[in-house]
Amino acid sequence: MVTPATAVVDCGGVGYLLEITLNTYSAIQEKSEVKLWVHEVVREDAYLLYGFYTTAERDMFRLLLGVNGVGAATARMMLSSLSVEELANAIASQDAKMVQRVKGVGAKTAQRIVLELQDKVSSVGGTAVPVTGVAAQASAKKDEAVAALVMLGFAKAAADKVMQSLDANLSVEELIKEALKRI
């Protein structure tokens, strides 16, 4: 059963209700069998499942959740209003006005999304897409190391600058140690 907002997925006789985007709905509405990529959100009062037709859409959803002030409902609304490519292109080109066109996203939130995610999307063949795989892991390690340095009392700008010069193949601990030598 599929509606524009939800899909019930039958897994071995058990039905799971997944909240979906309009883009996912458009891709699956005429199909009897589909494979959806799931993101689970566990809250105090509920377990929520979000389904996506592509891994790129799920990856963008996860990136959006990492932005302060953006929850699952807002992220889903953004991915219903814009395709992954449109959203990634808007972020990569720092077009906060395009992001702000989504219902429920104000100017400050749009600017924060662009600022925080511009390094986490990349252009591939003229189309921006979420950074995944090795590049995302390297970025996550560097972000974690920067956060640790900030907690140690170093300025975020200084930590970011030093982190850019370090090898992404290092572990988080090694990144921190090297950064401490260079700050």
What does this molecule look like?
This protein has 183 residues and is an alpha+beta fold. The protein folds into three domains: 6-52, Nucleic acid-binding proteins (OB fold (Dihydrolipoamide Acetyltransferase, E2P)), CATH 2.40.50.140; 55-127, 5' to 3' exonuclease, C-terminal subdomain (DNA polymerase, domain 1), CATH 1.10.150.20; 134-182, Helicase, Ruva Protein, domain 3 (Orthogonal Bundle), CATH 1.10.8. It is 50% helix and 18% strand. The chain is built from nine helices and six strands. It has helices spanning 22-28, 55-65, 72-81, 84-92, 96-100, 107-117, 134-151, 156-164, 172-182, and strands spanning 6-11, 14-20, 37-42, 47-52, 121-124, 127-130. The strands form two sheets. Strands 1-2-4-3 form a four-stranded mixed β-sheet. It has a two-stranded antiparallel sheet with strand order 5-6. A hairpin with a 4-residue loop joins strand 3 and strand 4. It is elongated, with a radius of gyration of 18 Å. Residues 123-127 have low confidence and may be disordered.
List the helices and strands and how they pair.
Blueprint: E1 6-11, E2 14-20, H1 22-28, E3 37-42, E4 47-52, H2 55-65, H3 72-81, H4 84-92, H5 96-100, H6 107-117, E5 121-124, E6 127-130, H7 134-151, H8 156-164, H9 172-182
Parallel strand pairs: 2-4
Antiparallel strand pairs: 1-2, 3-4, 5-6
Helix pairs in contact: 2-3, 7-8, 7-9
Concise synopsis of the structure shown:
The chain is of the alpha+beta class and 183 residues long. Helix content is 50%, strand content 18%.
